[in-house]
Amino acid sequence: MDRVSELKNKLSRVLPAFEIAEKELLAKHTSFRIGGPAELMVFPRTREELAAVLRAAAELEVKPRILGAGTNVLAPDEGVRGLVIVTRETFMGLELVTPTRVAAMAGMTLAQTANFAARNRLSGLEFAHGIPGTVGGGVYMNAGAYGGELRDVAVRTEFMHLDGTTEIFEGERQGFAYRTSAFQTQKGVIVRTEFELRPGDEAAIRARMKELAEKRRASQPLELPSAGSTFKRPQQGYAAALIEQTGLKGLSVGGAAVSEKHAGFIVNKGCASAADVLALVKLVQERVFDATGIRLEPEVRLWGAEE
Ligand SMILES: Cc1cc2nc3c(=O)[nH]c(=O)nc-3n(C[C@H](O)[C@H](O)[C@H](O)COP(=O)(O)OP(=O)(O)OC[C@H]3O[C@@H](n4cnc5c(N)ncnc54)[C@H](O)[C@@H]3O)c2cc1C
What is the pLDDT of residues 212-225, one digit of tens each? Predict the structure, then answer.
């Protein structure tokens, strides 16, 4: 029996009521709507379930991949071997731990978390309301928008290692920098993050969220599947501006195209494969480099097929 089948049997024994999907299409779990089957996919609801899954995978030497809302991942057409742990919609919970501190489990969306903060008249997460990912994915990426980043408010993160033990990362130890965090160099799962916020006026908080949502709708191709900004902001200038100046708006490979509305986005026109997107990423990098001497680096996480 191969290791993945052994893992499935083991999980069915250890967690009898646990949902395990086999050959689930990653396209159903990514905002690009791209990606072949994951050999095994699981949806833990609690720390205990997550720890049991991680321990079983470690014993059988199956590498787990973590997926939040899949809004920053390009999954391969051939799918992925091994285990994918999905947090969105199952690994849930929000709590007011002090009058100004909100704690969110990793599977909560940033929108749910920002709304909870607003209901509790707490300001500081308005910028994150329109970022379409989970708290875990957001902390992993240090997601940011409109002058805010999660590093401004994330003060304490609980992280689970592959052996099921947890560790607290506080303040600077979370290692935030532009679109990265200490968790990108760790193997394991972000479990929960606490956000330190400021007392505010609920109407003003909601008005700011609405204003930012309108800005987003006006400038981003939200009607088409994508993973947001494809490239990181280079030191010199903005990726979208460089791509537009190079005349690449509308450039396409197969079903993937540089958005006409926002040159920083590669969109799926309906039938794009991961191979199309990867070829377009490469083409944009080459053309921008030839025109400007600047090398664009992908912000989107490019998953490979192998363990
Ligand atoms: C329309 C659109 C607009 C966007 N706008 C913005 C924006 O304004 N600003 C911005 O920063 N981003 C933006 N993004 C990108 C994306 O929403 C963010 O990067 C978001 O934080 C990703 O969260 P996620 O839950 O979808 O993560 P996923 O895409 O599921 O995962 C991203 C990475 O995080 C890892 N990961 C996820 N959860 C965990 C966890 N619990 N523990 C450990 N690792 C984990 C994954 O393995 C993967 O490597 C946009 C995307 C779209 C589609």
Answer: 999 999 999 999 99
